[in-house]
Design brief:
With 158 residues, the chain is an alpha/beta fold. Helix content is 37%, strand content 25%. It is built from five helices and seven strands. The chain has a five-stranded mixed beta sheet. The protein has a two-stranded antiparallel sheet with strand order 1-2. Strand 6 and strand 7 form a beta hairpin. The longest helix has 17 residues. It is globular, with a radius of gyration of 15 Å. The N and C termini lie far apart (48 Å).
């Protein structure tokens, strides 16, 4: 058995992520560990998890930042969690967003974005309910805002 290279490991994770996304769940790897959507959804008090892909070169992504920040602040006490993934930024290094989402992932080479079917088509967001149902796939902030308000209003987690 040959030793795994970082590129081989990323490819393996990307393939697993693509399979999980098609099944309605996702696992995302990063240098410092894993992000498991089901694990996030199973945390006490969590009702919804959004994953937002962005890049600093993406004008609509940067224009949406204040709306993401406001959405997160408005609903975080109601169980809404936000994970942001910085992808495909020139020169790498992943620029920090100007607020504190629940989790931030650096996807310099775009493997995670590709495995979600995003590629360079940004912005793109995904939203899961606490039951594990994928509610939004490759949506924009306006769709996420509507779904979060709708689901939290009529489908409380007990």
């Amino acid at each position: 058995m040959q030793p795994s290279t970082p590129r081989t490991l990323r490819w393996t994770v990307a393939m697993a992520l693509a399979f999980a996304t098609l099944a309605g769940t996702a696992t995302v790897a990063e240098a410092s560990g894993r992000l498991d959507i089901r694990e996030w959804l199973n945390r006490p008090g969590v009702k919804m998890v959004a994953v937002e892909f962005y890049a600093t070169w993406c004008k609509p992504c940067m224009e949406a930042v204040p709306r993401w920040k406001a959405l997160h602040e408005k609903y975080k006490d109601d169980g809404f969690r936000l994970i942001v993934i910085n992808t495909l930024d020139p020169g790498g290094g992943c620029v920090q967003v100007p607020w504190n989402p629940d989790h931030r992932i650096c996807d310099d080479d775009g493997f995670i974005a590709s495995s979600f079917g995003v590629g360079g088509n940004l912005p793109a967001a995904f939203l899961w309910s606490w039951q594990g149902k994928l509610l939004v796939k490759k949506g924009h902030i306006d769709v996420i805002e509507q779904q979060v308000a709708k689901v939290l209003a009529k489908n409380p987690r007990v």
